[in-house]
Here is the input.
Amino acid sequence: MGVRPDNRLADAPMHPVACASCAARVLVRKASWQQTSVQWSDDAMAACSSWSPGSAVKGLPPVCDRLRDSIAQAVVDGTLPVLAPEDD
Here is the structure.
């Protein structure tokens, strides 16, 4: 049995977002206001002022409040789309 391809990123690619505090550059996808996917590179982990090997759960870096604010600002600026925005 073959593996079914995941086309979600083809339909809605991740977008680069830089933290306004430490300039860590991550890739982000907002499926909704509640769901955010963040992809970290080795360079981003090295640049992040909030990440340390002891602070991560299961080896994954946390999303600090400053990066969270930068992601929210990218949505406000229109550089990071929200795929399923809430109805007003």
